[in-house]
Amino acid sequence: MAVATRGGRGPGLGAGHSPGSFFSYRIFVSAVFSLLFLATLSVLFTTRPYASSSDPDVAMTGNAYVHRSFLALKSDPLRTRLDLIHKQATDHIVLVDAYTAYARKLKVENSRQLRMFDDLAQNFRDLVSKPAYVEALFQTDGHVDEEILRQFEKEVKDKVKVARSMIAEAKESYDNQLKIQKLKDTIFAVHELLLKARKNGAYASLIAAKSVPKSLHCLAMRLVEEKIAHPEKYKDEKPKPEFEDPSLYHYAIFSDNVIAVSVVVNSVVKNAKEPWKHVFHVVTDKMNLAAMKVWFSMRPVGGGAHVEMKAVEDFNFLNSSYVPVLRQLETAKLQNLNINNGAANATKDFNNMKFTNPKYLSMLNHLRFYFPEMYPKLHRILFLDDDVVVQKDLTALWSIDLDGKVHGAVETCFGSFHRYAQYLNFSHPLIKEKFNPRACAWAYGLNIFDLDAWRREKSTEQYHYWQNLNEDRTLWKLGTLPPGLITFYSTTKSLDKSWHVRGLGYNPSVSMDVINNAAVVHFNGNMKPWLDIALSQYKDLWTKYVDSDMEFVQMCNFGF
Ligand SMILES: *[C@@H]1O[C@H](CO)[C@@H](O)[C@H](O)[C@H]1NC(C)=O
Ligand SMILES: *[C@@H]1O[C@H](CO)[C@@H](O)[C@H](O)[C@H]1NC(C)=O
Ligand SMILES: *[C@@H]1O[C@H](CO)[C@@H](O)[C@H](O)[C@H]1NC(C)=O
């Protein structure tokens, strides 16, 4: 559930800086799509020789145009730079906000530090929404004033420097405080707070979700640029027969984060006894598909393992007359359009509106309810989140006895935590009638599905039934866990806890013995291993599977 959890990285994502993030994201998307478009053009020109023989003039000017525009874009120096600087500013707002929340929860209310974080966040916000900058840099379609950009860059850089040094100082003391006090309740409370912040409207959460750290963003850009520079090297490959071979071990990984996916795949392969029998089905969004393909083409997985890469859009059966979430998102989009009319007007670029819609992200999240249709030939599939690391050979999961159940997962409840009552609205008569509020919840992250049992139990229909009832969000609020708990209520088999150990993204006191014994560890929570705010004691578990020899990883300053 990387996509969803990433959405909750910072509370207080108010209107203060949203227009800025909005623009910067749009600029990024436009840039990527312009690049992709040009790439397509150049592929067309280079793969259709007859065009040049029959009409040399057109082809020549076409090519020249492509070259010129591409160079202009690639070297356009200002737009790209503006985009990167602005992104850096908004990313730091999220980061500083996260630290402010932690400081507050650690009850350092009166401390100098908390005040400084607060001030810093405010300063950042003022900076990116300063009318002089907004007008000269973000609301212009053409020329960016270099002088003003330079000034903006300098101000952002100064603030980033301050933020970095404050975070470095705070991080140490917070990590220690967290360790010493074992503030489990506090941690839960912060987690809840962040969840709540995420629920504060799709718009704010979308911006948080989109506030990808600069390094991830840089990596995706580099990969796309690589494809544009060498289109002949990155032709689409034909589907392999292994993709549909039910005797192999199949994984589903749905993510828009290239480096995270590469870590998951790498960690599986490195720990597999027979890697050539493992098949990864990676699904991403349209925007990241090219980047993913280039990555796995430049850095093929070892051991003869197989990787299939697709975009959500490639699954034609997912249309809004069939999929409740898509229908609901369309309704939400209409409402959103009304609310955000101002922003839409300001940029007059209606075409890009659809990328500000949570549809792509959310459909990627809800894909997990469609395995039997996505992979009709398969009998079992293992679903992995993109924030996990695999530490053992997992093949036993394909032969584990699920007692005829559809789904196997590790349960997460203890005491009164993580029971159904926490996820579903038991004041609702339908929920009350069907479910036990004390029933133990499980987690996504590592889930084995028996697709034949799924087809027999008609689990997708179950899911559709409830998702349709929840149009007004009275049964549950957001996310995929509540509908998952509903859909697989009586069809889940509990797996041994060592299969899936969670909490590495928020809980500083997970025992190292438990971690070392785990088949899969999960960085659920906001402190993802690829972020600055990662808990340092767990970071190596993840970074040791990062392909740090890869030139773009080095170029993009991941700092692992
Ligand atoms: C939507 O998909 C379903 C199957 O998933 C199909 O039967 C239906 O014809 C599709 N509808 C449209 C409008 O494409
Ligand atoms: C948006 O554009 C429409 C038509 O161009 C105009 O009537 C409306 O006042 C504009 N809204 C805002 C908030 O600028
Ligand atoms: C829970 O369900 C009841 C009954 O439908 C409804 O009145 C209430 O608003 C719901 N609670 C939430 C938080 O949606």
UniProtKB/TrEMBL annotation:
Q: Please name the SUPFAM superfamilies in this protein's record.
A: Nucleotide-diphospho-sugar transferases
Tell me what topology the record assigns in the membrane.
Single-pass type II membrane protein
The principal location of this protein is Golgi
Which residues span the membrane?
Answer: 23-45
Alphabetically, the GO molecular function entries are:
polygalacturonate 4-alpha-galacturonosyltransferase activity
Q: Pathway listed for it?
A: Glycan metabolism; pectin biosynthesis
Give GO BP annotations, semicolon-separated. cell wall organization
Cellular component terms per the entry's GO annotation: Golgi membrane
Coiled-coil region(s): none
Q: Record keywords: Cell wall biogenesis/degradation included?
A: yes
Q: Which InterPro entries match?
A: GAUT, Glyco_trans_8, Nucleotide-diphossugar_trans
Q: Which UniProt keywords apply?
A: Cell wall biogenesis/degradation, Glycosyltransferase, Golgi apparatus, Membrane, Transferase, Transmembrane, Transmembrane helix
| EC id | 2.4.1.-
Its annotated compartments are:
Golgi apparatus membrane
What's its top-level EC category? transferase
**Per the similarity annotation, which family is this?**
Belongs to the glycosyltransferase 8 family.
This one is known as Hexosyltransferase
Q: Give the species.
A: Nepenthes gracilis (Slender pitcher plant)
